[in-house]
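REQUEST ID: PR-0412
SUBMITTED BY: lab tech R.K.
PRIORITY: routine
TASK: structure prediction, single protein chain
INPUT:
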Amino acid sequence: MYSTAVEDECGICNGNRSECEQITKSIEYKKAERVSAGSYVKIATINKGISTFHFEKATHSHSFLALKVKDKYYLNGNHTIMERKAFLIGQTRLWYKRGVKQEILEAGKHPLSDNVDIMLLVLNNDLIKIKYSYWNSINQTKANQTKLRTNYYQWFFENNTNDECSCTTRQPYCVFKSYQNEFVVVSEDLCDAKTKPKPIKCQHKNCSILVPSAPRWQIGPWRACEGRCWPQEAFQRRSLLCVRTISNNKIHTIPTSICLHWLSTIPVTIRECPPNLSSSIPKCSQLKIYHQWNTSEWKGVSTKNERVM
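STATUS: complete
OUTPUT:
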């Protein structure tokens, strides 16, 4: 939070591309006789862990790029073609746009959590040319992958202090360690599940959970009243964030689900506008009423009574 650090194409915070290299390839594809029109054909696979890639189909054709993870299509599946789309796969954001002469599919700077299959929806016999590039780790051995994960993503105990009276149970969280040694809570998928420690029970079970390192709600100030008229249609809003103090006495925003899990109440974020703050909003009683129900007199009929609205 409040950090100007950015990730490089390798997915490393404040990195300089020294941990990965750009790989560029090209594909030429023409439908074989055994492939029927309307079939999906896999043309490439982007491996789990790759942070940045770019696909471009520059030729004019009636075939389209598609994207699939395992058995689920995230783009142009079920023969439904999009013109533009921004979407997420795990925590990786992707963008797609299609014009008359080109299609572009690219992913932002966050490691993929699964292998991604790049598909082609083939509709005719055109020769299709595709160029693509991605940033791959320079050394893909298992030992170096483990070292990279250990250096940047690690398990961290909440309330990691020597004061056992500041908690009831210390829970492990996956955090990202930046070059500035700051810790930010991230998805547990980025840490090694095999090394996840078990929760630690504190010696003093009656300690309060309301300590700086525990998850807590951070409430913003009430905003100006808004609405058409007061009091029936005037209200106030305020912001609500789930935060905790991780390190260096800095407050970090964490997923709302953590506060929902640990805290029994949720602060109110919308309320009626108080009378002392409603001077800028007209009173509802002073507004002209443009519509209301009107009724006529009951009419007698032989079978039943009815009235006209």
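NOTES: The chain has three domains: 20-137, 142-201, 216-309.
REVIEWED BY: pending
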